[in-house]
Automatic annotation (TrEMBL):
InterPro entries hit by this protein: IL-17_fam
Species: Solea senegalensis (Senegalese sole)
The organism's place on the tree of life at top rank: Eukaryota
Protein name per Swiss-Prot or TrEMBL: Interleukin-17F-like
One GO CC term, this protein: extracellular region
Predominant location: secreted
Organismal lineage: Eukaryota, Metazoa, Chordata, Craniata, Vertebrata
Keywords annotated in UniProt: Secreted, Signal
GO MF: cytokine activity
Keyword Cell membrane assigned: no
Signal peptide as annotated in the record: 1-21
Length: 173
């Protein structure tokens, strides 16, 4: 490749860069914003399937007792069979696409232990903690004209389940 060809490639790159940047930060009217977000999510930021969830207001409060009685039933759902059970609650984020998503909420502070033939009990020697996954959402932000919006990808940590861990201990010296 000679110097003339390199020069032409550089010039073309400089001319096309604003076009690519414009397309990525395009401003949308209110009526086209939702469709644009759906297209971008489908083509660039694949979303996981949403589990069934209850509205956050309907969800059991975190202060309720750990559901050890679940272990006296035959259950199929992994969230109910876990020693650190959880429920999915529906969360909402204004100005984001998708605007609602399911997030896991741990039902126990400790973990459910099953020993020999004794009934299951919650042990506070262990902790139930959420397992988090980073997901991409598109945030609606106002364009410089003050009337249209552009979509910016943002990372959000979402709890997808719960697991049982040993309690943190501090070492004293």
């Amino acid at each position: 490749m000679d110097l003339k060809q390199i020069f032409i490639i550089i010039i073309l790159g400089l001319l096309l860069a604003p076009v690519w940047t414009f397309k990525m930060n395009r401003c949308y009217d209110d009526d086209e914003l939702s469709d644009a977000a759906d297209r971008k999510l489908r083509s660039h930021f694949l979303q996981p399937p949403e589990p069934s969830a209850v509205e956050e207001e309907e969800a059991e409060p975190s202060s309720s007792s750990c559901p050890v009685s679940l272990y006296q039933q035959r259950l199929q759902d992994m969230s109910d069979r876990s020693v650190s059970p959880w429920r999915y609650v529906l969360r909402h984020m204004k100005d984001h696409y998708p605007s609602s998503y399911a997030e896991a909420r741990c039902l126990c502070s400790g973990c459910i232990l099953i020993r020999d033939r004794n009934p299951p009990t919650e042990s506070l020697d262990y902790n139930s903690v959420p397992i988090k996954q980073s997901r991409i959402f598109l945030k609606r932000e106002l364009c410089s004209d003050g009337q249209k919006y552009h979509l910016t990808p943002v990372n959000v940590e979402v709890a997808v389940g719960c697991t049982c861990v040993r309690v943190k201990t501090s070492t004293s010296s």
